[in-house]
Design goal:
Elements lengths: L5 E11 L2 E9 L2 E5 L2 E3 L6 H13 L1 E15 L5 E14 L9 E8 H6 L7 H11 L7 H4 L9
Parallel strand pairs: 1-6
Antiparallel strand pairs: 1-2, 1-4, 2-3, 2-7, 5-6
Length: 154
């Protein structure tokens, strides 16, 4: 993986009553399903990025409960991704917020519904992240909250 073209992203698995908070989004003219996810921005922690991306894409305020893991992937265009995935509880929906333009819909979907739409996933990471969480992989949030951000000296 070439660090010059690696994207650092976050994703959040949010389950409530056996259903998962998902987004339908347009990517390159194609409608796909994904967990609330997006890019980390300089100046924020990975946890802050996950909470911000979830709010921006779904209008749901969440509380992170666990760190699921780090997932590496690449696509046919040669782009590489490093995804930090979290589990969270949904606290409250902010109906007055306007979600990101590329989000077509925000939905709570059951596992059967998600598996039936496997071909509509944004990437293989979507169901892999969910399967990892369903299989019980969860780490304390301190596993990523202690990652320091260093600035290079001129």
């Amino acid at each position: 993986m070439n660090a010059a073209n690696a994207h650092l992203t976050v994703a959040t698995v949010i389950e409530r009553n056996g259903r998962f908070l998902m987004v339908r989004e347009k990517v390159d003219g194609r409608e796909v399903l994904n967990q609330p996810a997006g890019h980390w921005e300089p100046g924020e922690t990975l946890q802050q990025a996950a909470i911000r991306e979830t709010l921006e894409e779904t209008a749901w305020q969440v509380e992170l409960t666990a760190f699921i893991g780090v997932f590496l992937s690449s696509n046919s265009a040669g782009q590489h991704y490093c995804r930090f995935a979290f589990a969270a509880d949904a606290l409250r929906q902010h109906g007055e917020l306007i979600i990101d333009d590329d989000i077509v819909a925000v939905e709570w979907l059951g596992l059967d519904e998600l598996q039936a739409q496997r071909d509509k996933m944004r990437s293989d990471l979507v169901l892999h992240t969910l399967d990892t969480w369903l299989n019980g992989q969860q780490f304390d949030l301190s596993a990523v909250s202690s990652i320091p951000l260093f600035h290079n000296r001129p």
